[in-house]
User: What shape does this take?
Amino acid sequence: MSRAVRFDRYGPVEVLQVAEVEPPTPAAGEVLVEVVSAGINPGEIAIREGLLHAQWPARFPSGQGSDFAGRVVEVGAGVEGVAVDDEVLGFTDNRASQADLVVAAAGHITGKPDSVGWDQAGALKIAGTTAYAAVRVVAPQLGETVVVSGAAGGVGTLAVQLARRTGANVIGIAGASNSDWLRSIGVEPVTYGDGLAERLRAVAPQGIDAFIDTFGGGYVDLAVEAGVAPDRVETIIDFAAAERLGAQAVGGAEASTAAVLAELAGLLAAGELTVPIAATYPLDKVREAYTELAKRHTRGKIVLRIR
Assistant: This one.
């Protein structure tokens, strides 16, 4: 038997449990991975609470989790270029990564560079590909000004770094406690709250060229009111505002490939990108991990360390 996070009905964090389950078996084209670390993500909260039932209904009992890092323990028929004991990172589309063992399509994994830590590797996929897609869709150019809301969150911390790599001037909206960290990576911090529009005008008197919203709660409206063209405003959360104003709402699915994941892992290995880890929890503390995530005040990612 092996352990896996399960919930058998929609509801609050208390519906989560760590259950004993039969170990999964890889089919043709799949690999079985012994999970070392697995990221947790806000979208999983919405799914668990039933808020996304129309788009992504759960089948009970449901597993949970997409991104992971670990060691290959079994290879299915027809898989080439992957061997037992390979250290990999990747993702599953079956809500199953928060477990001792996960089956993933061979095309959904890539090698973990030796210099990349397990926690960063396990937390990379969802936040990394979402940030990658967001930056790509607003297409910052050298010398332009890009604003990122939620700049200290899981996606935001990566979006500001990827935007900065384009040569753009990047402004990060976050709490004051994150200002020093943002400055350390070349991002101009601006605190959220009352008077934000005025503070943005003060630090970007020439105007804002593109805006990435990772937080919701009115930032799409703020961006358009500030003069940003709607097609250069991307939100990963406020879909209603995007539809109303004609903004972008691409999401990470546009970049959910092993090739993008390998590119991001390579940047980590080269020291050109970092995934800040706010906290790690053991698998049996999954409820505590999601309780912390729901507060929306952590810098970077929260990770489940399986082993």
